[in-house]
Amino acid sequence: MELDPVIHPPTRLQIVSLLAAAEEAEFGFVRDTLGVSDSVLSKQGSALETAGYIQVRKGYVGKRPKTWFRLTDRGRAAFTAYVANLQRIVSPSGLTVAPEERGQAVGRPR
Amino acid sequence: MELDPVIHPPTRLQIVSLLAAAEEAEFGFVRDTLGVSDSVLSKQGSALETAGYIQVRKGYVGKRPKTWFRLTDRGRAAFTAYVANLQRIVSPSGLTVAPEERGQAVGRPR
DNA sequence: AAAGTACTTTCCATACTGGAAAGTGGTTGT
DNA sequence: ACAACCACTTTCCAGTATGGAAAGTACTTT
């Protein structure tokens, strides 16, 4: 019934949402997509890893080191629960946060 | 595109969501519904008032003083925008935060 | 050897949150 | 009249967390 404090902070919510939509995402891609600094992504990524919500994979692309993040099952479950809680909190207002089949607006009750 | 920091903190999100669903709500009702202390509700309420998101009305019920909160138009607009942003952030995952006609589950894509 | 890439850590200064406790203004009980 | 109570409001007090800047690590490229 509570909003998971590991996920709720804006930056982490965005990271988790992004990862929930992809298999795996590159450090640089996430950083640029969210528009955060290296240090912020590194720190928030670690926080999510410590919570067991994401898995960090290090590897190479050619000879350059790269880091990838991916949601763990636990992280996905936590995100799903988080979104469910958000829904319970927000939905009485009649507003929806629901995308239509192919992404659509937020509006008053349908 | 950003999650309004005035609304985002859990307690305030819950206050605003509750007010968005009602015309007006009594201090005690909100406090008990959210399960927060007097001081927390008082402080967060003031924060929302300062932001111009809610209006605080003081009156009496018999001879006892009572306080009511109601969302201002500005507050409602901010909440709507907030929810829209939430949707943009969360929806790529395929999860929805949308209630069905009469409140329903969160699930995978429909 | 110097510079660059891809992060990670440390440092720092600033919020912000919530609980406890004290305070305010008016009311009810004895 | 005086103590106790109601309905909040404020103050006091930690304890956290956040983000940017800068320094550090480990390589690789020029």
From TrEMBL, chains A, B:
InterPro entries: WH-like_DNA-bd_sf, WH_DNA-bd_dom, WH_DNA-bd_sf. Residues 12-90 form the Winged helix DNA-binding domain. Transmembrane segments: none annotated. This is Winged helix DNA-binding domain-containing protein. It comes from Microbispora amethystogenes.
